[in-house]
Write a structure and sequence with these properties.
Layout (H helix, E strand, L loop, with lengths): L2 E5 L3 E2 L5 E8 L8 E8 L6 E7 L4 E3 L7 E6 L4 E6 L8 E9 L6 E5 L3 E5 L2
Parallel strand pairs: 2-11
Antiparallel strand pairs: 1-3, 3-8, 4-5, 4-9, 5-6, 7-8, 9-10, 9-11
Length: 122
């Protein structure tokens, strides 16, 4: 029932800020107890969790990316966004948004967006 869709530019220049939006339908991003996450997969590599914004608005980021990452939300639009600053070609990846349940009977990543390719290149 919950559907997510990523959107944003597919090409970003080095040193600029990558900005993506995830639009959620079929459920509210303020629903207890869900954590709205960003994950990426560089070519030929595994999935890397970037961070989340919780139902409460609290955020938590991967330590390796924390200094460059900002996740925010617009509850009126049921959207959350990713901003990754100072990008390099190593940030090239398919970026996914996903819902994450940590408690009760809804644990794990329940819903994923289809993913969007972001290439960092000059």
């Amino acid at each position: 029932q919950v559907q997510l869709q990523e959107s944003g530019p597919g090409l970003v220049k080095p040193s600029q800020t990558l900005s993506l939006t995830c639009t959620v339908s079929g459920g509210s991003i303020t629903t207890n107890y869900y954590y709205w996450s960003w994950i990426r997969q560089p070519p030929g590599k595994g999935l890397e969790w970037i961070g989340y914004i919780a139902y409460s608005g609290s955020t938590y980021y991967s330590p390796s990316l924390k200094s460059r990452t900002s996740i925010s939300r617009d509850t009126s639009k049921n959207q959350f966004t990713l901003q990754l600053s100072s990008v390099t070609p190593e940030d090239t990846a398919v970026y996914y948004c996903a819902s994450l349940g940590l408690y009760g009977n809804q644990q794990g990543f329940g819903s994923w967006g289809q993913g969007t390719q972001v290439t960092v290149s000059s």
